[in-house]
Each structure stands twice: as C-alpha cells, then as structure tokens.
Amino acid sequence: MKQAAPGRPKDLEKRAAILQAGKRLFPRQGFDGTSMDAIANEAGVSKLTVYSHFNDKETLFKEVIQAKCEEQLPAELFLADLKGPIRGQLQTIARAFFNLIASEEAISLHRMMTAQTQQSAKLAQMFWEAGPKRLQDSFEAFLLAEIAGGQLDIPDPRRATGQFFCLLKGELHARMSFGCCEPYTERDVDEHIDATVDLFLRAYAPR
User: Fold this and answer.
1) Among 92-101, 113-122, 198-207, the least confident range
2) Residue 18, CA distances (Å) to 51, 71, 89 in order
3) Using an 8 Å Cβ cutoff, are 112 and 25 in contact?
4) Are 50 and 39 in contact (CB under 8 A)?
5) I want to staple 188 with a disulfide (CB 3.0 to 4.6 A). Which of 73, 129, 183, 184 is the partner?
6) Which option is the CATH number for 65-204: 1.10.1040.50, 3.40.190.170, 1.10.357.10, 3.30.70.940?
7) 53: CB partners within 8 A, 6+ apart
8) Are residues 51 and 58 in contact, defined by beta-carbon separation less than 8 angstroms?
9) Which residues contact 28 (CB under 8 A, 6 or more apart)?
10) Where are the domains of the chain?
C-alpha cells in the first residue's frame, strides 16, 4: 500500500493554524491592520510558510471567511430530508445562521466590510462570494430539493432565499451592528427563529 508523503499531515496542521490565526486577527484588527507577519506570528509559523499556503492576504482572507462559514453551517446541514418535517430542518438552518451572524467575530467583520467597501470593491466582492453567496447557493439548492419533494411551493427560490436570511437578521442584527443592542436571552432567539420560520412557511407551504 502506498504511504502518504512525508510531512503532509504537518503541512495540513500548519494550514489549519494559519486559518485559525486569520479567524482571530481579521475581526480584531481589520483587513488593513492585519499583516502577514502578524498572521505568521499568531500561527507559530514562518511568513514563508503562510505564503506557501496562501498566495496573498486577499486569498487568505477569502479562505478564512469560507472556513468560518463551513464551520458554522457545514454542507450536510443543507441536505434535504424529505422524510422529516420541513419546519425542523428550517429551524436547524436558521439557528446555525443566526449563531454565526450574532457572534462577536461576525459583527466585527460586518462593521469592517461596511467601512471597507468604499476603499476596496474587490475585497467586498471576495467577502460576498466566500460567505453570503456560498450560503445562499446552498440554501437555494436545499429549497429546490424540498420543492421537488412537494414540501414547499416557491415560484422564485432565489428570491425566497434572500427573504429567509433577511428575515433572520431582522432588527436584532441591525441593533447588534450599531452597538446599541441590549442583552438578549436564549428565549428571545428561539422566539425570533420560530416566528421567522412560521412566516416563511405561511408564505411558501404547498397550497
């Protein structure tokens, strides 16, 4: 049996350490305030190692956003279970999404990207494609499977996808972004998610 090339697990460990360093530093220091030297120091690797895994800071940033989204909302979360209740599946996706956007790191990144947009349209586009667009594509595929299985009746799945995520953000996420949100409880989140899913199903349940 062919053995794995020497050093490969170590390389994967270094790549993971670099991504973890990016997850910590980009939200805390911003894109411009985070250097590749700082990433290397935080990850405990050389700057050359960082560049060997990621060609430039923009590529690293994109990979960090993608990794964070996949960590919170893995691909299997969007696999349609046509034998199970659609409401439960929507609630699971909704809670994972809300937990992601309500995290301190995500709020910091949201503020950073809002301020960064005027300076770098390219960076904004990279963020969109690595994070929000990937999640929307996954959720739209989920909706299409549920529509085919007779669980939903949606004439425009793409529009419904945007509506679902916008409803989940709601006023609460806006207040968090502005920094004027009072502490909320787990019950507050449960009620917000339940109300969102119920509204979505009232709009798109089979007639």
Assistant:
1) 113-122
2) 10, 15, 33
3) no
4) yes
5) 184
6) 1.10.357.10
7) 11, 14, 15, 18
8) no
9) 108
10) 1-54, 65-204
Question: 1-54 has which fold?
Answer: Arc Repressor Mutant, subunit A (1.10.10)
**If you count them, how many residues does the chain have?**
207
Beta strands in the chain (DSSP E): none
- The answer to whether 152 and 60 are in contact (CB under 8 A) is no
Short-list 53, 94, 4, 5, CA closest to 20: 53
- Number of CB atoms found within 10 A of residue 35's CB: 13
- Per DSSP, the three-state class of 180 is coil
Residues 140 and 156: beta-carbon distance below 8 Å:
no
What is the per-residue pLDDT across 49-63, written as a single tens digit (0 to 9) for each? 999 999 999 999 999
Please tell me whether the overall predicted TM-score, pTM, comes out greater than 0.90 for this model.
no
DSSP string, 32-90: TT--HHHHHHHHTS-HHHHHHH-SSHHHHHHHHHHHHHHHHS-GGGG---TTS-HHHHH
